[in-house]
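TA notes. Do not distribute before section.
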Amino acid sequence: MLNAKIAKELKKLKVKTVQITIDGPKEIHDKRRPLINGKGSFDTIINNVKEVKDYFEHISIRINIDKTNEDKIIELLKYLKNERLTEGNCSPYLAFVDVSTEVCRDIEINCIDIKNRSKYMEEKVKEAYEEGINIIKYPTPMYSQCGAVKPNSFVIDPEGYMYKCWHEVGIKTLAIGNIKGNEKNKNFDRYLKWNTFNPLNYEECKNCKFLPLCMGGCPDKTLFKYRGINEESCTMYKYNLEEMLKMHLKAKLKKGFLPIPVK
C-alpha cells in the first residue's frame, strides 16, 4: 500500500524513514505473503519501493529469514542490487523470524537459534560482499536494544491501541492506552516496567563483555518470561564479533579509508 500518493502524505507528516519487509525471492515471498485475493505481493512491493524512494531519507529493507528460505537470500540480494535497491537511501538487512507469542508457536521448528544465526550472518555477509553488496554493519555501543524500552516509542494498531512492543500488537489486554483518548491509564504498571528496564539487574548481562553492544538484547524475552518463549536474547556478536570486525575493516580498506593491512 506504500505507493507514491501515500508516501507524499507521509512526507508532509514529516515521516523520514520507513521499513519494508521481504520474505525472499519472488517465488518464496509470494507463497508466504499473498494478498487477500491469493495473488503475490512481491512485484507490488518492489515497484512501490522504487516509486517512493525520493520521498524518504532512508528506506530499510528487512529480509526475513528462517530455515525455509535461508538458502535463497543471496539470490534476493543480487536481485535487489540489479534493481538498484541496495544503494543510496535504500539498505537491505538480514533479520531472523522469531516465535514471539503462543500464536506463532507452530513456526518454532523453522526458526534459527542464536549460534546458528551468528554463523549464518558471518557466511552471508561474506557472500554478499563478494557480489558487491555491502551489508556489513559496524557494531556500536547503544543506549538500548529496542524502542520498547525508550520513553517516546510506541506501536499503534489500526484501532488506535498503543503498545510498547510490537510483539504485543493485537493483544488488547496488553495495550497501555489508546490514542483516541480513552483508556489513558490502562496497564500503567506495565508501561513503567518497560521504561525502567535495566540490563544491569540481570547477572548474565552485568558480567558480559558484550553488554555495550547489546544492552540486554530483546527486553521482551527478559521481562516477560511468562510467555513461555525460551530463547536466548543475546546479540549475535557474542559469537561472531571477531570475524565481523575483520570483514568491516576489509571493506574500509577496499574503499581506501584505512592505511593498514588486515589479515
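Switch to the second chain here.
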Amino acid sequence: MINLETPRKFRAFVNQAHQVAAEMLRPNSRRYDLAEHEYPVELDMLAAMVDGLGASGTGSGAGASGVRRTAAASDGIVDGVANGSNLSSVLSIMEMCWGDVGLLLSMPRQGLGNSAIASVASDEQLRRFDGVWAAMAITEPGCGSDSAGIRTTARLDGDDYVLDGEKIFVTAGGRCDAVVVWATLDKSLGRAAIKSFVVMKDTPGMTVERLEHKLGIRASDTATIRFENCRVPRENLLGSADIDKGFAGVMQTFDNTRPLVAAMAVGCARASLELTRELLSDAGVQIDYDRPVHLQSAAAATYLAMEADWEAAYLLTLQAAWMADNGQPNSLQASMAKAKAGRAANDITLRCVELTGSLGYSEHHLLEKWSRDSKILDIFEGTQQLQQLIVARRLLGKTSAELK
C-alpha cells in the first residue's frame, strides 16, 4: 500500500533540493529568463554536488533515473515495499521546479536522454555512458507526438548505423555531450522498427542547426539538429536491435520521463499557489479551510479549487513513480499523471496571474514567468491530447490501430 508521506530516508535529500531551489535557482530565475541562450554557470557547481551525492551513495536517486524491472518484479513478485530512485527523483524535481523549471532542465548530466539510457541501456552501456550529459531527440518537422511517424532513418552498414534525418525541439541539444536519437530501421514496419541510438556530439554528420527562441523555459536551450550520413557504432543502439521485440523497449523510456515532467508541473504550480496565497493575504483575502467554500469570497473559493486540482496532480505523480519503483507496469498511470499535472499547472499558473491582477502580470513577481514556463509541461513528452488518447486505449483495451 502506498504511503503518502515523504519516506524518511528521502526527507533530508528533499530538504536539500528545496534549499538549492530557494538559494540558487529562484534568485537566478529572472536573470536567465531575460538572457536566453546564456549558459547558467552556477549549475556546474550544482551538478558536481549531485554527482558527488550519487557517487557517495547518499543521493537517494539524485539525477536522472530509469524504469528498470527485474524478472521477479515483472512477474508480480516483490518483497515488501520499495521507495526507490523514481520516487526520489520526482520528489526532488518538484522542489527544484519550485525554484525554476528552465534551470532544472539545464542541469548537466541530468537530461531526458539520461533517463532514456537509464531505462533501457544494457549494463555495459550504463558503464560506458556514465557521466555523459544526454539530450533526447524525438520530434521531427513532420512528426510531433505521434512517434510512429518518425522518418529519421538508421541503416546498418558494417559495424555502424548510418543516421539521416532532422530533429527539432531537442532540449539541451546545444549544450549536451550526446543525443539519444529515435530513428527507424525500416519505415514500412511502422513502430516496430523504431530504435534509439546514443550519438556523441563530436560525431561527423551531426550538426546543431539553430537554437529556438521560446515563450518559456528560456534558460534551457532548445535545438534543431540535422543528421547527414552520420555513422554511429552499432553498440550505441540502446536495448535490443531485434525488430521482433517491437516498440515496447523504446516506449519504456516514457514510463519514466512522463512522471518526471509531471513533477516539474507540480513544482511550478506549487510555487504559484504559495506566492498567490501570500499576495491575497496581503490584500486582505482570507482563505479559511474550516468554512464551506460558498461562504467565502470568490477569490478564496477559486484558490481552494486550484489547490484541490494541484493535490490530485501531486498524488497521481507519486503513484506513477511508486509503481515504477515496485516493478508494477505504470504506463497508464504515467500518462494520467502527465495529463493531469500538465493541464493543472497551466490552469493554476494562469489563474494565479488573474487573481493577483497587475502584480501577477508584471515582472515585479515571477508569477507571469511561471505561467509561461508551465505551458511546455503540457506539451513535451507527449501532448495533453495524446495522453488522453493513451489513457482511453488502456482503459478500453484498444490498440493504437483501433482507437486513433
